[in-house]
Amino acid sequence: MTEQNRVAIVTGAARGIGAATAIRLAADGYAVAVIDLEEAAGKDTVEKITAAGGKALAVGADVSNGEQVAAAVDRVVAELGAPTILVNNAGVLRDNLLFKMSESDWDTVMNVHLKGAFLMSKACQKHMVDAGYGRIVNLSSSSALGNRGQANYSAAKAGLQGFTKTLAKELGKFGITANAVAPGFIATDMTAATAERVGMGFEEFKAAAASMIPVNRVGVPDDIAHTVSFLVSEGAGFVSGQVVYVAGGPLD
Ligand SMILES: NC(=O)c1ccc[n+]([C@@H]2O[C@H](COP(=O)([O-])OP(=O)(O)OC[C@H]3O[C@@H](n4cnc5c(N)ncnc54)[C@H](O)[C@@H]3O)[C@@H](O)[C@H]2O)c1
Q: For 37-55, how does the pLDDT look when each residue is reduced to its tens digit (9 = 90+)?
């Protein structure tokens, strides 16, 4: 089997990093399931893929809901085929300093990032085990190292690194690798929302971030898509349990 007949799932693929990753994986030759909260939200990504000659399917599901995840993966199997590539990218922010962070801010972030990755990986792994082949990539973050205002998010993103290493150990004997990509600052709606929260224009916010980054620019979604493309490739089969920081330089 080659990229030409493998099926990939990318969660949170309606926009930002997930959309760029879905488009890149489709260009690499995979049939791609674009999962996001609403099926309609994924149509734009699907249209871009099909316009370029690729194959894609938009599926609506909340990754933190076990029933919706099971139904979404069943639909992918029925309409595209059994998934052997999974990119757990769906994410949300509920930033606040600890003393102002609500219980629901904590739970929402844990549920989408950590429980979502758990549910999706569990639903997809049986197809990968059956195929004797699989690639799982989880989106961590440089915030896993700690970031002011992100106690929930940094805990979830650090948690995803432990989750990734455990999947690598459990699933390696079935031909499945698991790795994490930890982006630094990537210009998306997510970082635009952060700029708004701290009361800065997005351009000013990006310029301030770029001045701290060794390559002197902020990241773009394609920077992450390119790294994911490598990690899910057949040739990356000896790379597993790793966290790849994609941040324009080393992090302290
Ligand atoms: N942008 C950055 O600088 C940056 C840095 C490090 C890590 N990340 C991580 O990369 C991933 C993508 O980030 P982005 O910047 O593209 O974000 P984004 O906000 O632009 O896109 C996130 C997507 O996830 C979807 N989503 C949210 N909750 C969902 C749920 N419960 N079920 C299904 N889909 C859901 C949203 O609808 C949206 O389409 C996230 O996991 C994020 O934490 C981003």
A: 999 999 999 999 999 999 9
Reported pTM: 0.98
Ligand 1 near 64 CB (within 6 A):
yes
Q: Which residue out of 188, 191, 243 has the highest number of ligand 1 atoms within 8 Å of its CB and is therefore the one to mutate?
A: 188
Instruction: Report the nearest atom of ligand 1 relative to the CA of 14.
Output: 39
Catalytic residue list: 153
Give CA torsion, residues 223, 245, 107, 73, to 10 deg: 60
Answer for the pair 183, 246: CB distance below 8 angstroms, yes or no: yes
Provide the H-helix boundaries in 29-102: 43-51, 66-79
pLDDT at 2 (0 to 100): 67
Residue 1 CA to ligand 1 center (angstroms) comes to: 30
Cβ-based neighbours of 137, under 8 Å, separated by 6 or more: 86, 87, 88, 178, 179, 180, 181, 228, 231, 232
CA distance 143 to 16: 18
Q: For the segment 77-92, what is each residue's pLDDT rounded down to a tens digit?
A: 999 999 999 999 999 9
Q: Which atom of ligand 1 is nearest to the CA of 112?
A: 31
Instruction: Check residue 199 and give its pLDDT.
Output: 95
Domains of the chain: 3-183+221-245 (3.40.50.720), 185-218 (no CATH)
Could you report the per-residue pLDDT of 126-171, keeping only the tens digit for each?
999 999 999 999 999 999 999 999 999 999 999 999 999 999 999 9
When the pLDDT of each residue in the chain is averaged and rounded to a whole number, the result is: 97
* Whole-angstrom distance, CA of residue 243 vs CA of residue 232: 14
Whether residue 5 has pLDDT greater than 90? no
How many other C-beta atoms can be found within 10 angstroms of the C-beta atom of residue 127? 20
